[in-house]
Amino acid sequence: MKFPKLAMVGAVVILSAGLQGCVIAVNGDGEHYSSSDSVTKKEKRNRTAIASFTNGMSVDAVQRELGTPEFSDLWTVDNVRYRVLYYRTQRVHADGNTTRDECTPIVFADGNLIGTGELALTRIPENN
Q: What does UniProt give as the signal peptide span (predicted)?
């Protein structure tokens, strides 16, 4: 018995709908991991690195360690140039998107690290 093309297309659509949002990968060792596992590992790696940072580190040193930030802000107040880099460190929303509340801010003044986390962020002047 032959299935009409429309029925076959419908079956493919229905069967593939159950696979949406599921990403499974195989690394070179044959181990399986989901995309959420790799994000969790990245978050842990970022938290570990940030915990080892010391005041005075350069923006370049931090970016060499952590790579490209998820978000970045830059402004100048009273001739001090502030830069804030945001790196993902925890999951808040399991939606596949990274938001600022899932990141730790890394705060610099004139290119030197002055603090990490929300407390450091609240202690710098706003750009009015």
A: 1-25
pLDDT tens digits, residue range 52-80? 999 999 999 999 999 999 999 999 999 99
What angle (nearest 5°) sits at the alpha carbon of residue 72, between those of residues 71 and 76?
Answer: 155
What pLDDT sits at residue 2?
56
Cα distance between residue 18 and residue 20, in whole Å: 6
Rounded Cα–Cα distance for residues 103 and 117 (Å): 9
The structure tokens 């938001």 sit at 99
Return the structure tokens found at 64. Answer: 């060499």
CA distance 37 to 113: 30
Q: Give the start-to-end residue ranges of the domains of the chain.
A: 24-122
CATH code that applies to domain 24-122: 3.30.1450.10
Which pTM value belongs to this model? 0.69
Contact 72, 81 (CB under 8 A): no
For residue 33, the one-letter residue type is Y
